[in-house]
Each structure stands twice: as structure tokens, then as C-alpha cells.
């Protein structure tokens, strides 16, 4: 996609629903030149607020739909913005389940004005079913107590720390935001269920013995809506190490108040049980906790308690970095 980007935030008020824009802005700030908010929107990524005319004048090339609403639908209030952006010469990119190219009016206006629509979730690649056969190389998969708890941030931070130490490592994106950041990957929640494990095998193929694939987790084994994609990704990843991710401010599953967050110990036991189908020697390497809503003191105390309870390093990828987890891996 052409850079720089204008990140579209709509009228969103919940940062978890704007995780696509937030992730791109955090990990690829050089590509982001502004944000566009509709009336009522309160999410602020610290970028200049630009309207479409200002964005064009600033040299912006692509409007990125930075919102991931429940169900991944293109909301009616966005359509006029998308159409105007196309008419003014911008390309448009999204990682929604609803595809831009499948929207008749958006598709027609893009064609009329010679603009490109990028549907990041769409893949023309065909995958085989997973085989579970052992392959060379090492793999780490981030898993979560819930959805949207920081698996992507943890994966990117671990890859960055490993590379800083000269480790042969690559981040493997499995969702739309990760693909925006990495420029490549497979959105596994858009893969037909029977082929998710095969897609994960394709994403992290056989490699050098000292190479690490740092695979971004998706969903949660304990979230009734999304556990299916998590299981397929786990089996295909054939991970050697797992990192459990959690948001310290959560008490229940995203969107499901009747499903409380599962105790860490029980959560880890469940993940290990599932992962051992394709790698008997899998083990946890640590915890990554989103402590953004805690004070500095409370955050450090929280992570210390987790470390004392489980005997594994506990980090916040943003607040503390992940050096302790990479130390645990032996680097």
C-alpha cells in the first residue's frame, strides 16, 4: 500500500475497537501522518486531526480504516467518507470481514476514479489441511486469557528484542493489524475452519534450526466466540514456547459479561493440553500483561506477584519491555 496513511477512527470511543489504528500508529509511526475522526469520536492517537482535503494537501496516499468493530461490518456512517476519499484521489484499505470490494457503491467509485481498494483479510491463496508433522526451526506463539489483550504487541516486542540481540527471528502476522504492520501475513480468522492449522503451517514453514518464528496469537481458548480459530492456530503453529497475555483491568470476556476471566493456572493448563497435540515439549516462557490502566506502582506489584506465583518472567511490552522473557529463552 502507498504511504503515508490517514487513520480513520470513525466515532469510536473504545480504544480496543480501534486497535488496528492504534497498532499501526505505535509500531509504524513513520507511515502515519494524520487521523480522521467523526463527530463524537474520542479516540486520540496523538496524530494531527486532518479532514480529507487537508490529508490530500499533506501528501497522504491511503485512508486506512483503523476500526475493528464487533462483527467486522462496514458501518453506514463510514461510506460517505470512503467515497469522498476515493473521489479525492486516496486509496482505501481495511481489514474488516465486510470487504470494500464487495460494497457495490465503493467498488464502483474506486473503479471510476482509478483508485485501489485493499482488503487485508482477503487472500487468494489456497491452503491444505494441517498435517501436524514436525518441522525444523523454533516457534513461539502468544496466547491470551481473552481477545484484544496484547498478543500482537507482545509478539512484536519479543521479535524486536530478539533481533536486537542478533537472534534469527521473524514476526508472523495472523490478523489484519499485524499484516498492516509487517506488510505480510495471513488473517487466519478469514480462513475456512478446516484449513486454519494448514494456514498456520504455511505461515511458519520449516526453517533453519536456530530460527525463531514469533507467531501472533488470535482469539482465546476461553472465549466462546473465538476459541475455534485459537485451536487451529495452536495446532498449526506447533509452538515450542507459549507466552500468556492478559489485560490486568479485565474481569470478564470481551463482550460477554457472564464469562469471567479464567484463572491463570487453569488457563495455562488448558493451553498446554491443546498445544501438546502437535508438540509434546511445549512450555510457557512467561507472561505479557497490559497494565496501561494501572499506576506504575500497582503495575510493578502486579507483575511481581505473577512472577512469584508461577516462577516465570512477567512483563508489560510497553511499560517494561520483554527482555526478561527473551532472557528466559536463553538469549
From TrEMBL:
InterPro entries attached to this UniProt entry: DgcN-like, DgcN-like_C, DgcN-like_N, P-loop_NTPase
Location of the D-glutamate N-acetyltransferase-like C-terminal domain: 129-326
Coiled-coil stretches: none
Domain D-glutamate N-acetyltransferase-like N-terminal: 46-122
Gene3D superfamilies referenced in this protein's UniProt entry, alphabetically: NAD(P)-binding Rossmann-like Domain, P-loop containing nucleotide triphosphate hydrolases
NCBIfam families: DgcN (NF041892)
PANTHER family in alphabetical order: DUF1611 DOMAIN-CONTAINING PROTEIN (PTHR40690:SF1), GLL3100 PROTEIN (PTHR40690)
Name used for this protein in its record: EBNA-1 nuclear protein
Originating organism: Paremcibacter congregatus
Source organism phylogeny: Bacteria, Pseudomonadati, Pseudomonadota, Alphaproteobacteria, Emcibacterales
Amino acid at each position: 500500500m502507498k504511504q503515508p496513511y490517514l487513520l480513520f477512527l470513525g466515532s469510536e470511543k473504545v480504544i480496543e475497537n480501534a486497535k488496528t489504528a492504534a497498532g499501526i500508529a505505535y509500531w509504524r509511526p513513520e507511515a502515519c501522518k494524520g487521523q480522521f475522526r467523526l463527530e463524537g469520536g474520542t479516540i486520540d492517537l496523538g496524530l494531527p486531526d486532518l479532514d480529507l482535503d487537508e490529508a490530500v494537501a499533506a501528501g497522504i496516499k491511503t485512508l486506512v480504516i483503523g476500526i475493528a468493530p464487533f462483527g467486522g461490518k462496514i458501518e453506514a456512517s463510514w461510506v460517505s467518507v470512503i467515497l469522498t476519499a476515493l473521489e479525492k484521489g486516496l486509496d482505501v484499505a481495511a481489514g474488516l470481514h465486510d470487504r470494500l470490494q464487495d460494497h457495490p457503491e465503493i467498488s464502483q467509485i474506486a473503479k471510476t476514479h482509478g483508485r485501489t481498494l485493499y482488503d487485508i483479510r482477503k487472500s487468494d491463496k489456497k491452503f491444505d489441511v494441517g498435517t501436524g508433522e514436525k518441522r525444523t526451526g523454533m516457534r513461539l506463539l502468544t496466547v491470551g486469557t481473552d481477545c484484544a489483550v496484547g498478543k500482537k504487541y507482545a509478539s512484536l516486542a519479543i521479535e524486536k528484542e530478539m533481533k536486537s540481540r542478533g537472534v534469527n527471528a521473524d514476526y508472523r502476522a495472523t490478523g489484519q493489524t499485524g499484516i498492516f504492520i509487517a506488510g505480510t501475513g495471513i488473517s487466519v480468522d478469514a480462513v475456512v475452519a478446516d484449513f486454519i492449522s494448514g494456514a498456520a503451517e504455511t505461515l511458519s514453514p520449516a526453517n533453519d534450526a536456530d530460527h525463531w518464528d514469533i507467531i501472533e496469537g488470535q482469539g482465546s481458548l476461553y472465549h466462546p466466540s473465538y476459541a475455534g480459530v485459537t485451536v487451529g492456530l495452536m495446532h498449526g503453529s506447533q509452538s515450542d514456547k507459549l507466552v500468556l497475555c492478559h489485560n490486568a483491568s479485565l474481569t470478564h470476556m470481551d463482550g460477554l459479561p457472564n464469562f469471567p476471566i479464567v484463572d491463570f493456572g487453569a488457563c495455562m493448563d488448558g493451553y498446554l493440553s491443546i498445544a501438546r497435540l502437535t508438540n509434546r515439549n511445549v512450555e510457557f516462557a512467561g507472561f505479557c500483561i497490559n497494565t496501561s490502566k494501572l499506576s506504575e506502582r500497582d503495575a510493578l506489584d502486579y507483575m511481581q506477584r505473577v512472577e512469584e506465583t508461577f516462577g516465570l518472567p512477567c512483563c508489560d511490552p510497553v511499560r517494561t519491555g520483554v527482555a526478561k522473557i527473551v532472557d528466559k529463552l536463553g538469549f
